[in-house]
Amino acid sequence: MLRGERGLAVALDLAFWRGVRSAATPVEWERIARSSYSVLVYHRLAGQGKRGQERIDLAPERFRQQLDVLRRFGFRTLASPDVIRFHSEAQMSMPRRSVALTVDDGAADCLVPLRRHAGADVQLFVPTREVGGAAHWLSGEPLLTWAELRLLADEGITIGSHARHHRRLTEWRADALAAELTGARADLRERLETSSELLAYPYGDHDLAVRGAARAAGYLGAYTTRTGRNGAGTDSFCIRRVSVHADDGRLAVLWKCLTGEQLPVGWLRLRAMSRRVRDARGRL
Ligand SMILES: [Zn+2]
Q1: 240: CA distance to ligand 1 center in Å?
Q2: What is the pLDDT of residues 145-156, one digit of tens each?
Q3: Reduced to 3 states, what is the DSSP secondary structure of residue 19?
Q4: Which one in 35, 110, 168, 282 has a CA-CA gap of 20 to 30 Å to 183?
Q5: For the segment 20-67, what is each residue's pLDDT rounded down to a tens digit?
Q6: Distance, CA 98 to ligand 1 centroid (Å)?
Q7: What spacing in Å lies between the alpha carbon of 203 and ligand 1's midpoint?
Q8: What's the predicted TM-score (pTM) here?
Q9: Which one-letter DSSP state was computed for residue 124?
Q10: Ligand 1 centroid vs 104 CA: distance in angstroms?
């Protein structure tokens, strides 16, 4: 590693720990860590870096490294029932370093990586009427079929509802909204004999009417795309998640687990700078 690069690597580490320290006092941090959890959200696991999907498409090897670092740092992954119980039972506290891993959409490329890490309590959310088709919201990427979803469910992956169609729920009329939400649960029950109690709002889009309709459809909670940690006071229909990006390394994923937030701007700037130095070196 060149001197300039080494300096940048040290600066990146410092930025991380400064950020962690400034997020809370030690006492606050202890309380936060014991009574709350973060949720990571992934989308594609192919690492193709297609235009427009560079951030949300992780290489399977990077996904493996991230799960590995969480394991090494003692994070416990939460299954759907853990999340539901935390929000419904006042006395329940989370073990320290709890994190839920979610994957939205059901892109076909997730099949192999998710099967490989079937023990990681991943929660996969699919739009049930798009299953086996092409993702119109993701440049037509192929989606998992029901047979593949069955395979994943049999291996321990929880398959949940991402509504029926991948459309913004706030844009449906009331009767269609109810059909989207109730229907997706019915589809999952019929095709996989599974009861989906958590919903992931497509595009994270929701409002009072959507949350009410979700409750009425029998869901017990729902994931948004708003960032932050989730505590006992978090509305279970407004569970926060933070998106993991293709270039998130070891520290970045730890940061997201600890804070539930995107990386600080200063850190992103340093990372971009570090990448430019590396690319320039590669061209020499
Ligand atoms: Zn989605």
Answers
A1: 15
A2: 999 999 999 999
A3: helix
A4: 110
A5: 666 666 655 555 556 899 999 999 999 998 988 988 999 999 999 999
A6: 23
A7: 6
A8: 0.85
A9: E
A10: 5
The CA 222 to ligand 1 mean position distance, Å, reads 13
The answer to whether 193 and 166 have CB atoms below 8 angstroms apart is no
Distance, CA of 228 to chain centre: 12
Single-letter residue type at 47: G
Ligand 1 centre from 166 Cα, in Å? 6
Q: Are 261 and 227 in contact (CB under 8 A)?
A: yes
Query: Measured in angstroms, how far is the CA atom of residue 31 from the centroid of ligand 1?
Result: 32
Q: Do 43 and 104 meet the contact criterion of CB atoms below 8 Å apart?
A: yes
Residue with tokens 């109690």: 197
C-alpha 19 – ligand 1 centre gap (Å): 30
Q: Please, is 55 exposed, middle or buried when counting C-beta atoms within 10 Å of its C-beta (0-12, 13-18, 19+)? A: middle
At 198, phi and psi to the nearest 5?
A: -115, 145
Spacing, Cα 62 to ligand 1 middle (Å)? 21
Token pair 């019915």: residue: 186
Cα dihedral sign for 102, 105, 107, 111?
positive
DSSP string, 180-232: HHHHHHHHHHHHH-----EEE-GGG---HHHHHHHHHTT-SEEE-S--S-EET
Closest listed residue to residue 20, CA positions, set 255, 271, 266: 255
